[in-house]
Amino acid sequence: MKKAYSYIRFSTSRQAGGDSFRRQYQEAKNYAAEHNLDLQDLSLFDKGVSAFRGANQETALGKFIELVDSGEIKKDSFLLVESFDRLSRQAIMSALSLFTGIISRGIILVTLSDNKVYAQDADMMDIMYSVMIMSRANEESEMKSQRAAKSWKEQRQQARSEGHIIKNARRPAWLNQDLSLIPEHTSTIKRIFEMAINGYGYSKIAQILDNEGIKTPRGSRWRPSYLQHILRNRAIMGEYQPHRMDGKQRVPDGEPIPNYYPAIVPPETYYAAQRAIDKRNRRGSGSRKGQFRNLFTGLIRCARCGAAIVLGSQNSPTSTYLKCHNLDCHRSLRYEFAEPQILPVVSYIADHLAPAIEDPEIIRLQTEIQATEQRLQRLTEAFEASLSTTVAQQLKAAEDALEGLRVDLKDRQEAAATSKQRRQIEIFDPKTLEDRAALNARLRDLLNYISYDTETGLMTYIVEGEPVIEQQFSHNKKSSRVSGMGTAFNTTKDGMSLNFAKDHDLVA
Questions:
Q1: How many CB atoms are located within 10 Å of the residue 398 CB?
Q2: Do 276 and 196 meet the contact criterion of CB atoms below 8 Å apart?
Q3: Residue 385 and residue 366 in contact, taking contact as beta carbons nearer than 8 Å
Q4: What's 29-75 look like in SS3?
């Protein structure tokens, strides 16, 4: 008894819920039973794969040909397909090459819709008939493709000019079919942005939401990658970026459409979250295994070699030390002495020397520049892969947009330099892991960094690129003298601020 294999394909996932699969498989079973063939369990199944672009040759159909070439599928086996258009809808020469490639390997091809059998010894009339059928399938697919492309283009134009909703377009999971907001998802996403702004990382936000039993808009547990998708998604502000296919590349189609979706957060909140995420990415996280031991993670640098001052042990199970990451710098500062002495200093800086309020428009422009640079990179890669004139036009438009944004940013920064207002940054005593994470985020907003000389015990606080306060630790590190910007006071390992006194020894 000869073996038979059924090949089933449909081009859209929506057809999976219909009759397409059952019908194609039942036809193969019927044919095998009528012709005394052994229908194998190895059915070849391409779900949601187009035969117009030949994508099915890289999936189940391609695997079948590999098994024939390797000898695992014997010659004179049968390949059962519903019709030629299931096999290929490509241009005639490509389709004919696929067809002859199958039968030339000794495989007997059967089209079940008309019970025609094609073998290695097929006569000219059979070949001509197959060419006619495949040609018609390609023409139908080409016409459908052109109509679909025209329809999508018209809908995108109407969305830009008239605010129309594009039918069958992908929509964010937090929206209903009519693009209205789903209230429970809206409140969760707002909270996610608040936590990100307060310094929580993706993993910590995921842990909090999972512990509270809150599901994602897709109904699953939270993952850091999905939180990143939400926090970086400009659809949160109401933007929609249309895409189209350029060959096998999915590329942006024109500029984003503003106010297409209902916005969940305003631009200033979105951009504040981007700034917090970028700062966190640059400086790392102090949270390890559910702890946030080092409030100053990413903030303290070695004055001698420039390496990070990190938290580490020093032959003690209970004590931890701030020490240079460079092993050549040997001296360290006991952390339980350092934290209570540093906090009064940063509290004073927050009250009197906080950095200027950041202009929301500057933040927006900086974020737009970053997004445009990333888009430019993607378009460059797409152009190198396809040499498409359309992608080249988009590339030029992105370059022009980037230049315009950089000019706008420079103008805005020059205007902002003449009118600075100080930010209000609250420094508090952290009691919980969440408090410590939030305070670390505020310290990152307050300070550029802290320089610490491990040999002399001198700590220098840098704000807006300038040194503002010096803190000289005593030999045993249990107390320190703080001076600069018209004030002086002492601190101790108990965190008390003592002997406030005015002086004018400004930091050099």
A1: 20
A2: yes
A3: no
A4: HHHHHHCCCEECCCCEEEECCCCCCCHHHHCHHHHHHHHHHHCCCCC
Backbone angles phi, psi at 297, to 5 degrees: -55, 130
Which DSSP string corresponds to 424-464? --------SHHHHHHHHHHHHHH-SEEEE-TTT-EEEEEET
- How does pLDDT run across 401-445, given as a tens digit for each residue? 899 999 998 888 877 766 666 667 778 778 877 778 778 888 888
Extract the tokens encoding 267. Answer: 């631009």
DSSP 113: T
CA distance 277 to 229: 12
Q: How many residues does the chain have?
A: 508
**How much is the pTM?**
0.50
CA atoms within 13 A on the CB side of 294: 25
Q: Which spans in 232-359 are helix H?
A: 267-283, 335-352
Residue 312: alpha-carbon gap to chain centroid: 33
In terms of C-beta density within 10 A (0-12 exposed, 13-18 middle, 19 or more buried), how is residue 38 classed? exposed
- Dihedrals phi, psi of 471, to nearest 5 degrees: -130, 115
Q: How confident is the model at residue 341 (pLDDT cuts 50, 70, 90)?
A: very high
Task: Enter the tokens of residue 293.
Answer: 């031991």
Tens of pLDDT, residues 2-47: 999 988 865 544 444 446 677 888 888 999 999 999 998 765 665 5
CA distances from 228 to 192, 223, 232, 253, 453 (A): 10, 9, 6, 23, 37
What's the rounded Cα separation, in Å, for the pair 485 and 146?
A: 70
Residue 426 gets the label, from left (phi > 0), alpha (psi -120 to 50) or beta, of beta
CB 2 within 8 A of CB 38: yes
List the structure tokens of 9: 């394909």
Dist CA 414 CA 417 (whole Å): 5
Helix (H) or strand (E) holding 238: none
Q: What is the DSSP letter of 308?
A: B
Nearest to 118 by CA among 374, 131, 69, 472: 131
Q: Which long-range contacts (CB under 8 A, 24 or more apart) does 200-203 make?
A: 200/434, 200/437, 200/438, 200/441, 201/280, 201/285, 201/287, 201/437, 202/227, 202/228, 202/231, 203/287
